[in-house]
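Annotated sample (chain length 155).
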Amino acid sequence: MNTSVISQILTHSIGAFGGTLGYAFLLNAPMNTVLPASLTGLLGYVIYEVMLNFFSQSAIFSYFVATVVIAVICEIAARVMRMPSTIFLLTALVPLVPGYTFYCAMLAIVEHNGAAFASYGLEAVQIVAVIAVGAAVTSTLFRLLTIRAARLARR
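Output written by the structure step:
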């Protein structure tokens, strides 16, 4: 394994944890949700980086898998702590938001570089769409499983 890649992942992971922690405080999340959401965001980002760098998966697929893992953990944490899952999900997904890609797209517009804008813009929109689909599918499946479990329990 390449030590520079591992050190890069560790450095980015610390930043992901700090960013998630700061965003949780910015959203005024309940104090007992801040650490679980931050750790979930850290784990999701590590999964994204590991899939991208060590398993040579595409960025879009890596974002999708990381989002699904984050959403599953958030749904479980929400049920354990008896809170809405969005409290956890909004903060835990922050490290996956493609801010740099959006920045590059806006820079390309300012520099009148239409090809670069189209490339970066399309990539950013794809990432946001994949994150939204991953979170929505996971949430829907959890709701369906919860409804089914409740129906089976009533029988």
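Annotation: Residues 114-154 form the longest helix (41 residues).
Annotation: DSSP finds six helices and no strands in the chain.
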